[in-house]
Amino acid sequence: MHDARQVANFLLDYAEERGIALTNMAVLKHIYFAHGWHLATCSQPLISNRIEAWEHGPVIRSVYDCFKAFGSAAITSRATTIDWETGEVVEARATFSGETQALLHWTLNYYAGYGAFELSAITHEADGPWDRVWNARDGKVRLNMEISNKAIQDHFVHQLKTASVQ
């Protein structure tokens, strides 16, 4: 598993190579989709971070915090983290397997034609993981409105099965 900031930087680098500008909302949704497809195809989480249901869809707080200064503008820097050995602030980087790189490339290429609010709308699908947490009417309190990996995996596995039937 990777820190979502590492995935964000990989996607931002790839998007820049392709001439695609990503906003904070867009990069968050691309990470969510990549995580979902990774869960569905590899049966393992891509990221170690919690995913929360916010008004405009799934959010990874650490990524949001890194880029919130950009508002709705294109991100022009990279996410950082603390190197615990040196205490320095460094860009969040990771080495991804070839399979994971291919999945991240596919995710960005597939969803690149959608604007940030369109990506948000996709995550708001009725009875999807975000919807079940955000619009829960069972009276339970959900700490930080967490969307479970199980709910995400089940949703994306269902998407795979539906796509293969058509």
Overall description:
With 166 residues, the chain is mainly alpha-helical. It has one domain (4-165). It has helices spanning 4-17, 24-42, 61-67, 98-111, 116-123, 129-134, 149-165, and strands at residues 51-54, 57-59, 80-82, 89-91, 146-147. The chain has a three-stranded antiparallel beta sheet. It has a two-stranded antiparallel sheet with strand order 3-4. Helix 2 (24-42) packs across helix 4. The model has no long low-confidence stretch (mean pLDDT 92).
SSE map:
Elements: H1 4-17, H2 24-42, E1 51-54, E2 57-59, H3 61-67, E3 80-82, E4 89-91, H4 98-111, H5 116-123, H6 129-134, E5 146-147, H7 149-165
Antiparallel strand pairs: 1-2, 1-5, 3-4
Helix pairs in contact: 1-2, 2-4, 2-5, 2-7
Would you kindly provide a brief summary of this structure?
This protein is mostly helical. It is built from seven helices and five strands. Helix 1 crosses helix 2, helix 2 packs across helix 4 and helix 2 packs across helix 7.
